[in-house]
């Protein structure tokens, strides 16, 4: 039998502690009579109080609702106690009680069973509720009954038959509490306004931290072991499935018809050659592998030897000794650099003064030659084009003793070099000696260890012998040329590369450097300083020679050109600086030579042209002046040919053949009326050509630039044969023409001359 009650409460604590619990706990109070209880029930039904019967349709079921401010719904259902039927006969038919708490705004709910209180509690609750509404006397239970009610409530909580409104735990959490903890959670718990607000989590004790750490480690290890077990189980399952499937496939009945394999009755024959080829191929591959292994073994042996040598060097030279040596070299290098940086300005000053002496002398000679040439040319020009018929070249030749008739030897003679006078040479020598004395005083206040090249290199030689690895790792061979450059330039102050008899190899620095690079024990050092001397030659010697080429060298001087080219040929033979890919100093030197030769051809060559009537007279000043200028140009042609192998061949051909020969010399040769003089001039010109130009030349014609030259010789030969057929002088001239054509490899012209002039014997004589 069920009953329904509606209980309204506005306080959570009141509802939990007083509204339900206290009323239910008062079951052991003084029991009223049954008639009184029935009368109370009737009065309660008639009055519209807080406690009222809502549903009277079902006499076996009653429900009550607790309205609270918290918007949730909780349903309580309690079982009837067996011992309560005797005390209250009016309620014997009622077996259970339903308690439902509904929220004003939420229709959802949850129900949970709780153990019921006794009927006395119910009657006391009804009496107290009705008493409050009828202003009757309220019976307050004593302490014993309160404790008994609390104990019953604790037991009900332990069974989790209902949810406490003030409990922070969720249903089904499975957390069991003892009697004391339950009482503290329910009765001794502070209200919301009395609780202390925690703004930070409480610090954990050492035991709690250790427990948490051990728990996490055990969880990780457990999870890892669980994963491994799962993985192993999965693998075993997969393997088992595969084995079962395989067994099923084998156990499955085979089809009735099976395809037969096509097996040939006869196999292709295998010959001995095929087997031999396969064996040879296999043997070759094994040999290749063997060679690779041997090469690797040699590399390993070389590395082992190097490691042993390094170990021996480390054992022989202690760390303290190395440190002491490195400190000494460090101090020496710093002092040497400070000394050279201080003396560099003095060295440059003295070197510039000496160089200025040679430049001034060269400029004086150049200006004298240009002035003399200009004066003579203007004077002859006046004589040639003088309107007065009585003042012709003959009278001028008689009045000027310098323009007398020339002999045959003098006509074909190359002019001499322009040399300074004795007074100019003496003055130059005096100033040069003063500057050399000044140069010797540059290192007068310096110890010999810091300016003597031999002693400086001995320090580095000691380093190379004692500590070879660190010497090579420091690239000392690349630093020495720049380090010794000031000292070498100091010794080269008085050296003139354009003057014969002076050789830089006779100076003290050269012997010291050569001994350092090629001295005793040079082969054992694996040629680590092999490029030291060639680098010094390129950066120091050629740089100094370049200055003389640009400002002092006279391309018309045979002596200066011969000395300069001899020096360059020697450097090329000993150090091969002009072969292959040239360095920057070498390129700058070659470019300076080319520019100087080009300037001489464009600005200093002058071969005038005069009327034929003046040139036929060998005593005329016009012929003599033209003859002198022609042979001066031929001299320049020969001086330019000395540079063969030092400057590019195509540039040399351009300067010699296209510019000098084609622009100046060929015009004079074509205007020559005397065949004998023409052949003489052509022979001199052909002698100037380098022999290397005609070594790999194809048989037939000569160089393209010499086509006009060979054609003119062919015309001269035909003219000589037509004028003087069969005479001895004619055969002599034809022999000279064939000799010139043979030197320039003009075989077509030679063949034409021999066929027309019938001079095969002359050609055989030349061979």
TrEMBL record:
Residues 192-216 have a biased composition (Basic and acidic residues). The lineage of its organism: Eukaryota, Metazoa, Chordata, Craniata, Vertebrata. It holds the Pfam family GCFC. Keywords: Nucleus. Its main location: nucleus. PANTHER family: GC-RICH SEQUENCE DNA-BINDING FACTOR, INTRON LARGE COMPLEX COMPONENT GCFC2. This is GC-rich sequence DNA-binding factor 2. Residues 105-120, 217-233 have a biased composition (Acidic residues). Residues 35-52, 84-94 have a biased composition (Polar residues). Residues 16-65, 77-259 are annotated as: Disordered. Residues 454-665 form the GCF C-terminal domain. It comes from Cyprinus carpio. GO terms for biological process: mRNA splicing, via spliceosome. The keyword Nucleus applies. It comes from the Eukaryota. GO terms for molecular function: DNA binding. It is found in: Nucleus. Residues 121-134, 171-184 have a biased composition (Low complexity). Belongs to the GCF family. One of its GO terms (cellular component) is nucleus.
């Amino acid at each position: 039998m069920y009953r329904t009650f509606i209980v309204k409460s506005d306080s959570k604590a009141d509802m939990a502690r007083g509204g339900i619990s206290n009323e239910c706990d008062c079951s052991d109070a003084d029991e009223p009579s049954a008639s009184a209880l029935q009368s109370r029930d009737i009065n309660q039904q008639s009055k519209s109080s807080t406690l009222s019967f809502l549903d009277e349709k079902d006499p076996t079921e009653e429900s009550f609702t607790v309205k609270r401010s918290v918007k949730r719904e909780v349903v309580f259902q309690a079982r009837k106690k067996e011992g309560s039927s005797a005390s209250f006969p009016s309620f014997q038919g009622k077996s259970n009680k339903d308690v439902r708490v509904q929220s004003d705004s939420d229709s959802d709910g949850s129900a949970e069973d709780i153990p019921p209180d006794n009927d006395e509690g119910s009657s006391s609750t009804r009496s107290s509720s009705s008493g409050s509404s009828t202003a009757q006397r309220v019976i307050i239970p004593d302490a014993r009954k309160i404790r008994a009610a609390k104990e019953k409530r604790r037991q009900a909580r332990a069974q989790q038959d209902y949810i406490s409104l003030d409990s922070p735990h969720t249903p089904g959490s499975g957390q069991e509490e003892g009697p004391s903890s339950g009482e503290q959670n329910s009765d001794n718990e502070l209200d919301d306004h009395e609780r202390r607000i925690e703004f930070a989590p409480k610090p954990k004790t050492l035991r709690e931290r250790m427990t948490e750490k051990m728990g996490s480690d055990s969880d990780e290890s457990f999870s890892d072991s669980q994963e491994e077990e799962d993985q192993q189980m999965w693998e075993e399952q997969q393997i088992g499935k595969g084995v079962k499937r395989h067994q099923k496939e084998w156990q499955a009945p085979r089809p009735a018809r099976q395809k037969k394999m096509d097996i040939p009755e006869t196999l292709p024959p295998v010959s001995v050659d095929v087997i031999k080829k396969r064996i040879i191929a296999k043997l070759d591959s094994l040999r290749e592998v063997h060679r690779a292994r041997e090469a690797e073994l040699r590399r390993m042996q070389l590395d082992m030897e190097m490691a042993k040598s390094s170990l021996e060097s480390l054992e022989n030279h202690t760390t303290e000794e190395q440190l002491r040596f490195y400190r000494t070299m460090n101090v020496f290098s710093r002092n040497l650099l400070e000394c050279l940086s201080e003396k560099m300005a003095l060295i440059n000053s003295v070197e510039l003064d000496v160089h200025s002496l040679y430049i001034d002398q060269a400029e004086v000679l150049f200006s004298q030659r240009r002035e003399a040439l200009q004066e003579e040319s203007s004077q002859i020009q006046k004589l040639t084009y003088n309107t007065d018929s009585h003042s012709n070249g003959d009278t001028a030749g008689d009045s000027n003793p310098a323009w007398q008739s020339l002999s045959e030897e003098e006509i074909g003679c190359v002019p001499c070099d322009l040399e300074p006078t004795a007074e100019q040479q003496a003055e130059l020598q005096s100033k040069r000696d003063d500057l050399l004395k000044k140069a010797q005083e540059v290192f007068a206040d310096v110890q010999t260890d810091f300016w003597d090249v031999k002693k400086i290199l001995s320090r580095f030689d000691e380093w190379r012998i004692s500590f070879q690895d660190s010497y090579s790792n420091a690239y000392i061979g690349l630093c020495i040329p720049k380090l010794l450059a000031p000292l070498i330039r100091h010794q080269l102050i008085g050296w003139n590369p354009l003057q014969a008899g002076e050789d830089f190899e006779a100076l003290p620095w050269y012997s010291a450097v050569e001994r350092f690079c090629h001295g005793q024990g040079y082969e054992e050092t694996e040629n680590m300083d092999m490029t030291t001397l060639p680098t010094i030659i390129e950066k120091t010697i050629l740089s100094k020679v370049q200055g003389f080429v640009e400002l002092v060298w006279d391309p018309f001087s045979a002596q200066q050109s011969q000395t300069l080219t001899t020096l360059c040929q020697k450097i090329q033979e000993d150090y091969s600086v002009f072969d292959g890919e040239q360095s920057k100093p070498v390129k700058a030197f070659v470019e300076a030579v080319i520019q100087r030769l080009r300037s001489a051809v464009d600005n200093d060559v002058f071969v005038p042209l005069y009327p034929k009537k003046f040139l036929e007279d060998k005593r005329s000043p016009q012929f003599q002046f033209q003859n002198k200028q022609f042979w001066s140009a031929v001299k320049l042609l020969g001086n330019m040919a000395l540079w063969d192998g030092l400057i590019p061949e195509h540039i040399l051909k351009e300067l010699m053949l296209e510019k000098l020969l084609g622009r100046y010399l060929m015009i004079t040769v074509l205007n020559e009326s005397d065949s004998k003089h023409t052949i003489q001039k052509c022979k001199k010109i052909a002698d100037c050509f380098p022999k290397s130009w005609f070594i790999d030349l194809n048989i037939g014609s000569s160089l393209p630039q010499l086509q006009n030259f060979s054609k003119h010789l062919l015309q001269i030969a035909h003219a000589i044969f037509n004028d003087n057929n069969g005479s001895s002088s004619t055969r002599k001239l034809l022999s000279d023409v064939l000799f010139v054509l043979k030197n320039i490899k003009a075989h077509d012209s030679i063949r034409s001359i021999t066929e027309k002039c019938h001079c095969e014997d002359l050609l055989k004589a030349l061979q």
